[in-house]
Design a protein that fits this description.
Blueprint: H1 21-72, E1 87-90, H2 93-99, H3 103-106, E2 125-126, E3 132-133, E4 135-138, E5 144-147, E6 155-158, E7 166-167, E8 176-177, E9 181-185, E10 199-200
Antiparallel strand pairs: 1-6, 2-3, 4-5, 6-9, 7-8, 9-10
Protein backbone atom coordinates (compact mmCIF):
# COMPACT_ATOMS: atom_id res chain seq x y z
CA UNK A 1 0.00 0.00 0.00
CA UNK A 2 1.33 3.34 -0.99
CA UNK A 3 1.97 5.96 1.73
CA UNK A 4 -0.33 8.85 1.31
CA UNK A 5 1.06 12.28 2.04
CA UNK A 6 -0.88 14.28 4.55
CA UNK A 7 -2.26 17.46 3.03
CA UNK A 8 -0.61 20.65 4.33
CA UNK A 9 -2.65 22.80 6.61
CA UNK A 10 -4.03 26.00 5.23
CA UNK A 11 -1.46 28.82 5.40
CA UNK A 12 1.44 26.52 6.35
CA UNK A 13 3.01 26.43 2.91
CA UNK A 14 3.97 30.12 2.74
CA UNK A 15 4.93 30.64 6.40
CA UNK A 16 8.61 31.43 7.15
CA UNK A 17 10.53 31.21 10.43
CA UNK A 18 11.38 34.97 10.70
CA UNK A 19 9.51 38.15 11.57
CA UNK A 20 7.54 39.99 8.98
CA UNK A 21 8.30 43.65 8.29
CA UNK A 22 5.14 44.68 10.10
CA UNK A 23 6.09 42.66 13.18
CA UNK A 24 9.56 44.24 13.25
CA UNK A 25 8.03 47.72 13.00
CA UNK A 26 5.74 46.96 15.94
CA UNK A 27 8.69 45.73 18.06
CA UNK A 28 10.80 48.78 17.21
CA UNK A 29 7.90 51.10 18.06
CA UNK A 30 7.38 49.41 21.44
CA UNK A 31 11.11 49.67 22.25
CA UNK A 32 11.10 53.38 21.32
CA UNK A 33 8.09 54.04 23.55
CA UNK A 34 9.67 52.20 26.49
CA UNK A 35 12.96 54.08 25.98
CA UNK A 36 11.04 57.36 26.04
CA UNK A 37 9.56 56.45 29.41
CA UNK A 38 12.79 55.08 30.87
CA UNK A 39 15.20 57.85 29.82
CA UNK A 40 13.88 60.50 32.27
CA UNK A 41 13.86 57.91 35.06
CA UNK A 42 17.45 56.80 34.39
CA UNK A 43 18.60 60.41 33.98
CA UNK A 44 16.97 61.30 37.30
CA UNK A 45 18.72 58.41 39.05
CA UNK A 46 22.09 59.50 37.63
CA UNK A 47 21.58 63.11 38.76
CA UNK A 48 20.52 61.98 42.22
CA UNK A 49 23.57 59.72 42.52
CA UNK A 50 25.91 62.50 41.43
CA UNK A 51 24.24 64.88 43.85
CA UNK A 52 24.88 62.47 46.72
CA UNK A 53 28.51 62.11 45.61
CA UNK A 54 28.92 65.90 45.51
CA UNK A 55 27.47 66.29 49.00
CA UNK A 56 29.73 63.59 50.46
CA UNK A 57 32.83 65.05 48.80
CA UNK A 58 31.93 68.54 50.02
CA UNK A 59 31.68 67.20 53.57
CA UNK A 60 35.02 65.42 53.18
CA UNK A 61 36.64 68.63 51.96
CA UNK A 62 35.19 70.53 54.91
CA UNK A 63 36.59 67.89 57.29
CA UNK A 64 40.03 68.15 55.62
CA UNK A 65 40.06 71.92 56.15
CA UNK A 66 39.03 71.49 59.78
CA UNK A 67 41.85 68.98 60.30
CA UNK A 68 44.32 71.45 58.78
CA UNK A 69 43.05 74.14 61.16
CA UNK A 70 43.53 71.81 64.13
CA UNK A 71 47.20 71.34 63.20
CA UNK A 72 48.11 74.87 62.12
CA UNK A 73 45.56 77.00 64.00
CA UNK A 74 44.79 78.86 60.77
CA UNK A 75 42.94 78.16 57.56
CA UNK A 76 44.57 76.95 54.31
CA UNK A 77 44.48 80.27 52.49
CA UNK A 78 46.95 83.03 51.80
CA UNK A 79 46.29 86.52 53.13
CA UNK A 80 46.20 89.30 50.57
CA UNK A 81 47.52 91.71 53.18
CA UNK A 82 44.25 93.66 53.29
CA UNK A 83 41.35 93.74 55.72
CA UNK A 84 40.87 90.49 57.63
CA UNK A 85 37.57 88.93 56.57
CA UNK A 86 36.07 85.64 55.47
CA UNK A 87 37.99 84.16 52.56
CA UNK A 88 36.40 82.37 49.61
CA UNK A 89 38.38 80.03 47.36
CA UNK A 90 37.74 77.22 44.91
CA UNK A 91 39.04 73.66 45.06
CA UNK A 92 41.64 74.51 42.43
CA UNK A 93 45.41 74.54 42.96
CA UNK A 94 44.96 77.52 45.29
CA UNK A 95 43.44 75.30 47.97
CA UNK A 96 44.26 71.73 47.01
CA UNK A 97 48.03 72.30 46.67
CA UNK A 98 47.96 73.01 50.41
CA UNK A 99 45.76 70.08 51.40
CA UNK A 100 47.29 67.38 49.20
CA UNK A 101 50.10 68.93 49.44
CA UNK A 102 52.37 70.06 46.61
CA UNK A 103 56.17 70.10 46.95
CA UNK A 104 56.14 73.91 47.02
CA UNK A 105 53.75 74.03 49.98
CA UNK A 106 55.99 71.64 51.96
CA UNK A 107 59.01 73.92 51.66
CA UNK A 108 59.80 76.77 54.07
CA UNK A 109 57.35 79.55 53.41
CA UNK A 110 54.71 77.10 52.22
CA UNK A 111 51.40 76.53 54.01
CA UNK A 112 51.87 72.83 54.74
CA UNK A 113 55.47 72.51 55.88
CA UNK A 114 54.69 69.31 57.79
CA UNK A 115 53.80 67.66 54.49
CA UNK A 116 50.57 66.19 55.86
CA UNK A 117 48.04 64.96 53.33
CA UNK A 118 44.67 66.24 54.52
CA UNK A 119 42.63 65.17 51.53
CA UNK A 120 42.54 61.92 49.57
CA UNK A 121 40.07 60.92 46.90
CA UNK A 122 39.56 59.00 43.69
CA UNK A 123 41.00 60.17 40.39
CA UNK A 124 38.83 62.58 38.40
CA UNK A 125 37.59 61.68 34.91
CA UNK A 126 38.28 64.02 31.99
CA UNK A 127 35.29 65.46 30.17
CA UNK A 128 35.34 68.38 27.72
CA UNK A 129 36.96 71.79 27.52
CA UNK A 130 39.84 70.85 29.79
CA UNK A 131 37.45 70.10 32.64
CA UNK A 132 37.12 67.00 34.82
CA UNK A 133 34.49 65.51 37.11
CA UNK A 134 34.18 63.44 40.27
CA UNK A 135 37.59 63.48 41.87
CA UNK A 136 41.15 64.74 42.10
CA UNK A 137 43.47 65.66 39.27
CA UNK A 138 46.88 64.99 40.83
CA UNK A 139 49.97 66.70 39.45
CA UNK A 140 53.54 65.37 39.42
CA UNK A 141 54.56 67.74 42.22
CA UNK A 142 51.87 66.38 44.53
CA UNK A 143 49.45 69.27 44.10
CA UNK A 144 46.22 69.17 42.16
CA UNK A 145 42.58 70.10 41.81
CA UNK A 146 39.28 68.72 43.10
CA UNK A 147 36.30 68.57 40.73
CA UNK A 148 32.64 67.94 41.49
CA UNK A 149 30.55 65.38 39.53
CA UNK A 150 29.30 68.09 37.16
CA UNK A 151 32.60 69.56 35.97
CA UNK A 152 33.06 72.46 38.40
CA UNK A 153 35.30 73.29 41.33
CA UNK A 154 33.81 73.28 44.80
CA UNK A 155 33.43 76.68 46.44
CA UNK A 156 34.80 77.12 49.96
CA UNK A 157 34.31 79.96 52.43
CA UNK A 158 36.37 80.05 55.64
CA UNK A 159 36.11 82.09 58.84
CA UNK A 160 39.40 83.92 58.36
CA UNK A 161 38.46 86.65 60.88
CA UNK A 162 37.81 83.95 63.53
CA UNK A 163 34.45 85.22 64.75
CA UNK A 164 32.80 81.77 64.61
CA UNK A 165 30.62 82.62 61.61
CA UNK A 166 30.82 83.25 57.89
CA UNK A 167 28.88 85.43 55.48
CA UNK A 168 26.32 83.47 53.50
CA UNK A 169 26.79 83.33 49.72
CA UNK A 170 24.78 85.92 47.82
CA UNK A 171 22.49 83.24 46.39
CA UNK A 172 21.51 81.96 49.85
CA UNK A 173 18.74 83.48 51.96
CA UNK A 174 20.29 84.83 55.15
CA UNK A 175 23.19 87.09 55.98
CA UNK A 176 25.35 85.04 58.37
CA UNK A 177 25.88 81.36 59.07
CA UNK A 178 27.05 79.93 62.39
CA UNK A 179 29.75 77.92 60.62
CA UNK A 180 33.53 78.16 60.43
CA UNK A 181 33.79 76.48 57.02
CA UNK A 182 31.14 76.07 54.34
CA UNK A 183 31.50 74.22 51.05
CA UNK A 184 29.15 74.09 48.08
CA UNK A 185 28.87 72.86 44.52
CA UNK A 186 27.02 74.90 41.90
CA UNK A 187 25.26 71.70 40.85
CA UNK A 188 24.37 70.27 37.43
CA UNK A 189 23.83 73.70 35.82
CA UNK A 190 27.28 74.89 37.04
CA UNK A 191 25.74 78.25 37.99
CA UNK A 192 25.98 79.54 41.58
CA UNK A 193 23.26 82.15 41.17
CA UNK A 194 20.73 79.64 39.85
CA UNK A 195 20.70 78.09 43.30
CA UNK A 196 17.89 75.58 43.00
CA UNK A 197 20.31 72.73 42.32
CA UNK A 198 23.26 73.93 44.41
CA UNK A 199 24.63 71.33 46.83
CA UNK A 200 25.85 72.63 50.19
CA UNK A 201 27.24 71.48 53.54
CA UNK A 202 24.95 73.54 55.78
Amino acid sequence: MRNRRKPKRTGEAGKSGGFTLMELLVVVTIIAILAGFLFPVVNGIIRKTRGSQAEQTAQNLKAAISAYFTDYRKYPARSDGGTIADVTVESSHELMDILLPSDAEKRPGGLNTRGTGYYTGKTAKPISGGRYRSGVVLEADGGGELWDPFGSYYRVRMDADYNQRVDAPTWYTGLRLAERVIVWSPGPDRDDDDSGDNIKTW
